[in-house]
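Running this now, will post back.
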Amino acid sequence: MSTGFYPGCSLTGSSREYSESLLAVARELGLAIPEVPDWNCCGATAAHNIDPELALTLPARILAHAEQAGMKEVLVPCAACYSRLQTTRHHLRADPDLLARISGRLQMEFHCEIDVINILQWLEREVIPLLAAKKLSSLGYQAACYYGCLLVRPPRILGFDRPEDPRIMDRIVAAIGLRPIEWAFKTECCGAGFSISRTDIVARLSGKILEDAQSRGAELVVVACPMCHTNLDMRRGAIERQAGKKYRLPVLYITQAVGLALGISPRKLGLNRHFVPVSLRAPAGEN
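Update: finished.
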């Protein structure tokens, strides 16, 4: 199967350690994920509030370029990008007239036959089966698997079997030697795009997430969303000022956790870019 990689804006900018760790894992396991050619911004959380048809056209252009490149599916690590691409695919496949209109705007032949998968689906399908042949570093920490909002909602479009209590990330972290905890905030909102305009809201919401995870014995938080990572990691100072207490939990992308288990060096996984230091046991060796 030809799987294309759509990095989106965050993975080439503020969250490039997410991309670095994903590509490091893919290289380590010999998995090819070529980048979608001439990709553009998916519209993020802004476009559909301004122009609904533009909000479909931007993701459709990405899918059209991937389709024309012969790709059968697109891997979308960013939860917000995944939501926009999957939502666009859902609407265009349900409405042939809309698909024809969007194709006309793109001035590209586009059949919308391509699939969209998120990072958790790709890891469980492609990476986990290869781990049996690898000697994994023993991590052994208790992990809070934080899915956030956009990876699992809306359920009727994204199709998670347990949208309020998803399990796929829990299975992945268990396969690499972490111990997923049971906790109450795995799909609660971190404040998302209010990170800049209303940092106080982000501090309050993200503080509740960290409080619940830490109180239940978590030693780290695992995420699959650039915005969630930004709010839980970069906004830690604001969170702690509002809460009046410290939270010791580092926040790792799921790809960084997998990379550590594979023995990939912390620097190659971008752990040095975090605001909250990651002081987990470093795997021996420099892959």
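The two ends are 27 Å apart (CA to CA). More later if anyone needs it.
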